[in-house]
Amino acid sequence: MEEQKISIIHETDDYLVIDKPAGLVVNRSNTAKGITLQDMIEERSPVVGEWDPEEVAPSDFTARSGIAHRLDKDTSGILLVAKNEEFFENVLDQFKERKIEKEYAAVVHGTPEEDTLEIDAPIKRSPKDPMKMAIVAGGKEAHTFVRKLNELEIDGNLFSYLQILPSTGRTHQIRVHLAAALLYIAGDPIYCPKNLLTIGREAFGRMMLHATKIRFFDPHLHEFVQFESPLPTEYLPFTSKI
């Protein structure tokens, strides 16, 4: 676990803003293989993962090593990590109250019928496949706003570059909502049909979902702050033509 592998966008006494690479698992679990971002954070700041053995269990802050939200393994981009329990609880409250704004960039197969799209559909674990989330009646409220920024043909295949603004943060929300709209994220190993998955992997070599921005209230500065993660090089063909 090498400290330099953590790319830090910004750091204060209260938090880290990290630029996570695609392919890195965020949280430890029974199914996670290899080193996780959580391991790397604890290696960098051991106190984050320590807890009093007389306690029945570690606090959420300790158990999660300050990681305030998650990105899927194959998603890259910006991630907020608390360095103390007070800020951790503050951020969780901001998420619950939907004060935190996040923005993503995605490349999908095909193109939407309209340049903007709002998807409001509940999400829960798929009753057909426990590895997937799905749009299911009675699931948790989920809302995603989509704006098309550009489109590009690569080796005879049409792709669209999208700005994604989710106002809720359900597991796999963006991936599920876009798949339901038949806008499969290029390289998505779970929701993309096999024939398209092969095309996307050959074109980009990764899943094309990147967390670009986060905006939240900094209680010490008493103002909202915003941080950005630069787009990976795979996105450059789309941005150079805007």
Automatic annotation (TrEMBL):
<dbReference type="GO" id="GO:0003723">
    <property type="term" value="F:RNA binding"/>
</dbReference>
<dbReference type="GO" id="GO:0009982">
    <property type="term" value="F:pseudouridine synthase activity"/>
</dbReference>
<comment type="similarity">
    <text>Belongs to the pseudouridine synthase RluA family.</text>
</comment>
<keyword id="KW-0413">Isomerase</keyword>
<dbReference type="InterPro" id="IPR020103">
    <property type="entry name" value="PsdUridine_synth_cat_dom_sf"/>
</dbReference>
<dbReference type="GO" id="GO:0140098">
    <property type="term" value="F:catalytic activity, acting on RNA"/>
</dbReference>
<dbReference type="InterPro" id="IPR050188">
    <property type="entry name" value="RluA_PseudoU_synthase"/>
</dbReference>
<feature type="domain" description="Pseudouridine synthase RsuA/RluA-like">
    <location>
        <begin position="14"/>
        <end position="180"/>
    </location>
</feature>
<dbReference type="GO" id="GO:0000455">
    <property type="term" value="P:enzyme-directed rRNA pseudouridine synthesis"/>
</dbReference>
<dbReference type="InterPro" id="IPR006224">
    <property type="entry name" value="PsdUridine_synth_RluA-like_CS"/>
</dbReference>
<dbReference type="InterPro" id="IPR006145">
    <property type="entry name" value="PsdUridine_synth_RsuA/RluA"/>
</dbReference>
<protein>
    <recommendedName>
        <fullName>Pseudouridine synthase RsuA/RluA-like domain-containing protein</fullName>
    </recommendedName>
</protein>
<dbReference type="Pfam" id="PF00849">
    <property type="entry name" value="PseudoU_synth_2"/>
</dbReference>
